[in-house]
Amino acid sequence: MPSTPDNNRDRSVGIVEPQRRTLFSPPDALVLESGERLTPVTVQYETYGELSSDADNAILICHALSGDAHAAGRHSPEDEKPGWWDSMIGPGKAFDTSRYFVICSNILGGCSGTTGPDSIDPNTNEPYGTNFPVITVRDMVLCQKALIDQLGIASLLAVAGGSMGGMQALEWAVSFPDKVRSVIPIATTYRMSAQGIALNEVGRQAIFADANWQNGRYEPGEGPSTGLALARMIAHISYLSAESMHRKFGRDLRYRDHYTYNFEQEFQVESYLHYQGSRFTERFDANTYLYITKAMDYFDLTTGFSSLRESMQRAVAKFLLISFTSDWLFPPREMKELANALRSNGADVTYIDINSEYGHDSFLIEDVPQTKLIAPFLEYLYWEE
Amino acid sequence: MPSTPDNNRDRSVGIVEPQRRTLFSPPDALVLESGERLTPVTVQYETYGELSSDADNAILICHALSGDAHAAGRHSPEDEKPGWWDSMIGPGKAFDTSRYFVICSNILGGCSGTTGPDSIDPNTNEPYGTNFPVITVRDMVLCQKALIDQLGIASLLAVAGGSMGGMQALEWAVSFPDKVRSVIPIATTYRMSAQGIALNEVGRQAIFADANWQNGRYEPGEGPSTGLALARMIAHISYLSAESMHRKFGRDLRYRDHYTYNFEQEFQVESYLHYQGSRFTERFDANTYLYITKAMDYFDLTTGFSSLRESMQRAVAKFLLISFTSDWLFPPREMKELANALRSNGADVTYIDINSEYGHDSFLIEDVPQTKLIAPFLEYLYWEE
Hints:
Two copies of one chain form a homodimer.
Chain A: E1 19-23, E2 30-31, E3 37-38, E4 41-48, E5 58-62, E6 89-90, E7 95-96, E8 101-105, E9 120-121, E10 126-127, H1 137-150, E11 158-162, H2 164-175, E12 182-186, H3 194-208, H4 225-239, H5 242-248, H6 268-281, H7 286-298, H8 308-311, E13 318-324, H9 332-344, E14 349-354, H10 362-365, H11 367-384
């Protein structure tokens, strides 16, 4: 998909059009980690830049829990907001689309075009709902691999992503070592922590507790919006640092300079959280939220291995690992453990802990320091052979 | 109330009997910070040790959100669990009951014997529910002050408490400077942070979202237990550190050594959180949870002052400030700000940041290092005059 230049916006990939492919059509099927089979699987994706004639300049961007395939550019000139990582993807940016062919696909289980719980189950002609099989990060990567194969790309120059996107990048490195020359996992971990599982579980329980959830059989637009908003509010707290919340809101009051002595939203931080929760329900499916958080909880690269080091011995890619000092959801110490394990295997690893106060969300905000690390890392790789 | 020795349990205050007093009886009333009037106010409390003839050995212990007046000893020989700070209160312990007279009262707004939302409103003969006026930490302290007056104690040797109990201790220091010789605020802050308000607000919304809440007009035993359990689960995550959760649970599974690929509670940490949430609903009132979290959110000693330093100029007590390295709900940096403000006023301040991995809950767990600090601090005060 050649992107149309958008002269109004410098260094933008311009207007982009989402694309779809159907993979794993019968009699084929995607065999999931659980053993269940899924067929067919539709994948929504976007691409930015041009694939080189020998297909050696492709970079896969993996999105996080609430992201989608729309990573850069705009869908129409009227579009108010660009894609979720527009500050990082475009001509002259970290993922320089004048040089690289950048692909971003909605994950398996997602609710933005790729087959997931809100898709129609061909066996029943109704939405899958909770009949959708439980998926894992590895299943998401299997689906991305099938897409890459169809696009005629034998090897990716890089796989990059933040948060759950970083989990996918790490999974690529160990599941398809001969298919990735480098991986750039950002603000992520090699295995979901107990605290992370706990936060996800409370969010899921908030959805289950909403009478409108109806065991996942709600009609479109009539889902458990109160429960989903609550789940998002909890998660949102974990995406920010205490410092950034303090600096952004402090104890500021919404309307007045005195307390109301009732239970209305009177602190700015309350109002902000409610807004985030409510806005999320307009664009996200509650069942999908259940499935994707569960996939994150299952993520553990060490499963079946005696150590993290041993589990990473399959990987041969170059690694650029990035964490952020104030990220308490995926703390720097876990990334450091990963860096140490990789180094003890003799892997080619660069690990940087970026000083930032923005917490987990830093990967969406701190484009300047990330660009300074990623652009030369990719350039070196690109010219290496 | 003299406590009966319990020979089976060394260094215990033994069997204790809760007591009640009615304060602010008509035509008197407790005038709240909001301007509302409350009359009468019943206070439940316990005492351990003996008040000296000149009433100079009294220590007030203030409890946290989910605590009550039962801080030490047992209510009967069959009682399986002692009071919530039994490891700190007793003969030879940090708060040595062979020397001091220790008082702990259920806070105003509580649900364990002191007047609160689940008490009967004398005007309607029904539970107050959400007709109960919104209260503040200062209101809780006014209520404690009235109790102390009734007990004939002109000046307290110390006021001590963790978390919201520490907020009360700080409030005592500035509201009644001539009534407290020392304060020992532990794992607390001089003003609730944006992150703390955010976590409390999500918990309240979980209660509001439960259909059984019914605007606070539920029958006893038929309250919003799902919402209250969710609120407790969220809060509980903030009481532990990521490290202690990892060490305690890691990614351990509940029954099996493989994933179930469904939405049952399969990780140990999930099962633990559910247990904590469910157990809490058996002993705590949902409306009370709303009111007490709101009181915490309102807590800000700097309100009406141009700086923290200025706000603390009213205090003349000796301060022993204790924080815990892994407490992210009330982080050491906030206690350090308080210590610095007090020191710049020339106050007598000792501040210790105890190295602990147990997070905010450390104040309930780390009795050994706390005793090493508190026992000599009190002993010095006691012999000083």
